[in-house]
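User: hey, got a sec? need NADH dehydrogenase [ubiquinone] 1 alpha subcomplex subunit 4-like 2 folded
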Amino acid sequence: MIRIAMEHVKKHPGLIPQFFFILLGMGGASLYLVRLAKGPHVTWNKKNNPEPWNQLDPTYQYKFVAIDTDYKNLKKEGPQF
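Assistant: Yep! Here you go:
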């Protein structure tokens, strides 16, 4: 399949930017999925750490981009578990 794509690119050089941006988008999406899978809200090992989100500091920045929230000044509003 890669060989066929390379043959098309040789015949039509205008396809080079299209292949580049498709691969760039697929790579970015894959890296974002890896980032989401390693987040604090995902549990991979339920026996050793069933609720990992309870062990996080209240100043931990959950969002990728926080425009209005200053996580350094937050205080925990709940009981300690």
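Quick note: The chain is about 40% helix and 0% strand. Let me know if you need anything else on NADH dehydrogenase [ubiquinone] 1 alpha subcomplex subunit 4-like 2.
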